[in-house]
Amino acid sequence: MIFAGTRSNNLGVQDGRLATCPSTPNCVSSQSTDSLHQIAQLNVTSPLE
After folding, report:
1. Max CA separation in the chain (angstroms)
2. How far are the Cα atoms of 27, 47, 49 from residue 22, in angstroms, in the given order?
3. Which value, in Å, is the radius of gyration of the alpha carbons in the chain?
4. Residue 11: which of 24, 23, 27 has the closest Cα?
5. How far is CA 35 from the centre of its chain?
6. What is the pLDDT of residue 28?
7. Would you give per-residue pLDDT tens digits along the chain (49 residues)?
8. SS3 content of the chain, % helix, strand, coil (to 5)
């Protein structure tokens, strides 16, 4: 295995929303409600293929 440690069990989409960020500062989310983890959403303007 290349990476040490264990994988978090709350990754990805849960109930139609992204999982909440943990209290560490190395996580961002466009759906976060706190300013530490909030980031602007990415707007896709070209059609998805």
Report:
1. 38
2. 7, 33, 33
3. 14
4. 27
5. 14
6. 92
7. 577 888 777 778 888 888 888 888 899 999 999 999 999 999 988 887 7
8. 0, 10, 90
Rounded Cα distance, 11 and 19, in Å: 6
CA distances from 5 to 22, 39, 40 (A): 16, 27, 30
Residues in CB range of 35: below 8 A, 6 or more apart: none
* 0.70 exceeded by pTM: no
* Selection from 10, 48, 16, 44 nearest residue 31 by Cα: 16
